[in-house]
Amino acid sequence: MGMIDRLKRSMSSTPSTKPTQELKFRSVLALALIKSAINDMMKDEDTLRSKGARFFLDGNYIDQCERAGLDAAWLRKQAAQLAGMKGKHRKEAGKNLIEEMKKRAA
Asked: Quick check: 41 and 82 in contact, CB under 8 A?
């Protein structure tokens, strides 16, 4: 059973909590998508880094930021700085960015 299935299963489907749970699920999923792109940008392989950067360049992050409760302009700036870094500095900055996102997410 995958992460998404476990999340869905763990949520009660009572009518009073279903809208709130749906929003929470979307927020968690959006944060996971953003984290995946950042993790790709931290990789040594050019193809993966390009894939992660494309997520931000194509504007895909904007809707995900809205769902996760993150400031899209802030995240775009952080991703641009991360893209310009090399090696271990990029990996450390990526880890720090993910931790900061967790703190800032709604």
From this structure: yes
